[in-house]
Design a protein that fits this description.
alpha+beta; Alpha-Beta Plaits; 2 domains; 4-stranded antiparallel sheet; 4 strands; 72% helix; 7% strand; disordered N terminus; cell division; Cell division protein FtsX; cell membrane; transmembrane helix
């Protein structure tokens, strides 16, 4: 039977194998180059399996760091989808100058009705406005004591476009155009609630981007610290490779693939967690939607989102490994 190697003997054997690989790699054809990358890729994965507990803990930390922005992204996507379905008839109220005569106001009303982007224009005279205000406010006695009607003529312009997040910029442009008319003192678009919602969604997007950036930095640090430990455990092997003339790219390659594996596995676990979270909250969310009798289907974390999550996580893992290995190689060269 073959005797077991001591740790020092195993390290020496690993260094000899690395030197043989280095010799065999000169010169590289394209096929040899691809086979070498494939071999290093599988060897890096095999090294992860040698330390299952540490590997699982690192992958889970990466998955947790990526799950939060992923879940927030799904939530924001559903809110945006709901708001896209909220459409109602918009009204632009034009408050004319008090000095404007009825004939001039009627002429302006007919002029606006002929616009291609206007559905119709409702004319509200000063008397109609006063009667409505008296009924709604309950101050009939006070208003009747006024020497003259203080209210202006109001034109209610109903655009052809319904108000929604997509049409809001165009409606705001129409409101600004109408307010620029010489007869109009003030123009108001009754979509303030939608403007507030658009501001909240814009804030939500930036918040998610900020949180995602911070958590990606956390992934860099997690992978970098793990790779630092791996480099330290193979310090003798790296020093020997430097002595026999190995390039930094050759030394860096297995650690980059290790960072790639950490990123891919972490992104995959994060995607599974987000999918399970979406499924978990889907039933109560659907019951809530049914109470409002809304025709809406919840959006989940689809295949494209999963691939993007894994890709971003893999890139973050490679970058973290690159930074960590590069620093350690520079430190070894200075010693």
């Amino acid at each position: 039977m073959m005797s077991k190697l001591s740790p020092r003997g195993a390290t020496r054997q690993s260094m000899v194998q690395s030197k043989n690989k280095l010799k065999d790699s000169q010169p590289f054809s394209l096929a040899q180059h691809l086979r070498h990358h494939q071999s290093v890729l599988m060897e890096s994965f095999a090294r992860l399996t040698l330390y299952p507990l540490a590997t699982v803990m690192t992958v889970l930390v990466i998955a947790i760091a990526l799950s939060l922005p992923g879940a927030l992204f799904v939530l924001l996507k559903n809110v945006e989808s709901i708001t896209d379905r909220w459409e109602q008839q918009s009204v632009i109220g034009l408050y004319l100058f008090s000095s404007l005569e009825d004939t001039e106001a009627l002429a302006l009303s007919h002029q606006l009705s002929s616009r291609a982007d206007v559905e119709r224009v409702d004319y509200i005279s000063k008397e109609e406005g006063l009667r409505y205000f008296e009924q709604s406010s309950g101050y009939e006695d006070i208003l009747s004591a006024l020497p003259e009607n203080p209210l202006p003529i109001v034109l209610q312009v109903i655009p052809k476009a319904v108000v929604s997040l997509e049409t809001l910029p165009g409606l705001e442009t129409l409101r600004a155009d109408l307010e620029a008319l010489p007869q109009v003192e003030y123009a108001q678009l009754d979509a303030q609630w939608l403007q507030r919602l658009a501001s909240i969604l814009a804030f939500g997007q930036r918040f998610i981007y900020g949180v995602s950036a911070l958590l990606l930095v956390a992934v860099f640090l997690i992978v970098g610290n793990t790779i630092r430990t791996a480099v330290e455990s193979r310090r003798d092997e790296v020093m020997v490779l430097k002595l026999v003339g190995a390039t930094n790219a050759y030394i860096r390659r297995p650690f980059l693939y290790m960072g790639l594996w950490f990123g891919v596995l972490g992104g995959l676990c994060a995607s599974v967690g987000i999918v399970l979270f979406s499924w978990w909250i889907s039933q109560p969310a659907e019951r809530l939607i049914a109470l409002y009798q809304a025709d809406f289907e919840l959006l989940g974390f689809n295949l494209n989102n999963i691939l993007v999550c894994i890709f971003i996580s893999a890139i973050a893992g490679v970058i973290g490994a690159w930074i960590s290995v590069g620093k350690h190689i520079r430190d070894m060269e200075l010693q």
